[in-house]
Amino acid sequence: MTDQxxxxxxxxxxxxxxxxxQMQHSPELLLAASEVEPADNVxxxxxxxxxxxCAFAKVARRVCGIDLTPAMIEQAKILQQSHGLTNLDxxxxxxxxxPFPDAAFSLVFTxxxxxxxxxxxxxxxxxxxxxxPGGRVMVVDVYxxxxxxxxxxxxxxxxxxxxxxxxxxxxxxxxWFHEAGLQDVKTQYFRHEFGVEEILERSxxxxxxxxxxxxxxxxxxxxxxxxxxxxxxxGKLRFAFPVVIVVGHRSEMNDLTNTWxxxxxxxxxxxxVLALWRRADAxxxxxxxxxxxxxxxxxxxxxxxxxEVGGQIVGSIIGSFDxxxxxxxxxxxxxxxxxxxxxxALVAEVENRLRRQGAKRITALVEKDHxxxxxxxxxxxxxxDQRMVRHAKNL
Length: 395
Fold this sequence. Notes:
With 395 residues, the chain is of the alpha/beta class. It has helices at residues 3-21, 28-34, 51-57, 70-83, 120-129, 147-160, 170-179, 196-201, 209-219, 270-279, 290-298, 342-357, 371-379, and strands at residues 41-45, 62-67, 88-92, 105-111, 131-144, 168-169, 182-195, 231-233, 236-250, 261-264, 303-309, 312-321, 326-333, 362-364. It has 2 domains: 3-250, Vaccinia Virus protein VP39 (Rossmann fold, 3-Layer(aba) Sandwich); 254-379, Gcn5-related N-acetyltransferase (GNAT) (Aminopeptidase).
């Protein structure tokens, strides 16, 4: 984003924050299109005053909203408080790049924002990056239907809101979804109706441009060169923004599972590792914290290894040698990458490292009630030592 465009965005949306927050909206169509579920961890990109983020938070486990404009985030917090919602987080910042690790959310969406971005294609790529394999990406925005209509519409919108860049063609946006590797891409269309004076009350055009907007809309009555279906109702001019909803699923990347990379974990990846453990429903431990993970990464005798596929951390294992025996902890594989040999590969790599340190015997901590886990460890050569019982104490 250029400095000039950033100033335009901040100027316009600081002014629009309160009137935007007071707009009536019906979130049901978008909630249904996104297929949001109670287990979802949701990201609202360019969340504005939090209207949709709060709607999603009434269904999903957790929702995070990010926006560039401080006034919008303030309105979002007020709305959250008015609804008594506690499962929302807000972040002030730009969306290029998104300040989140790979595969951090199961649902990533944005509404009425793409026409403000200088590089919306790059924003879509970022949305895909932070979406979990198998998760959903949704973009909701105004669209154009021809080059002539786009030119007329974009001129009108730039007068009404100087931060407007351009509305995309619906086919163009859908093509980007496919090129980003999203699957099962679906589209829905609807129209968002406004009165001309109603929309101008919430807008902040440059001096003199409001009258130009009124004239352009009036001249389009019965012509529809703008593509907004201008009509009269009770003596007032009204129109409707054409809106498209595009939803796609991120590939589970099955075609990449044989190209994983097993390597040492880095300090800055501690949060991503912790997120992997939570996503994989690993049993919580007293040492499950970013600080503890960073400490063990820095511990030279320990081996904290991760498996990476397509830039995403999808597996982990910890091995240590105390001079007497090797020990293995936290063998975790992302649910979408299980039963593909990845766990075996992680075990083999940590065994090799412990063997080079001098380990002649290795033990692995396995929950006895997890039949699938005990079966795996037996399959890779680890017998159940029934003579022993583990005693543990949290300090």
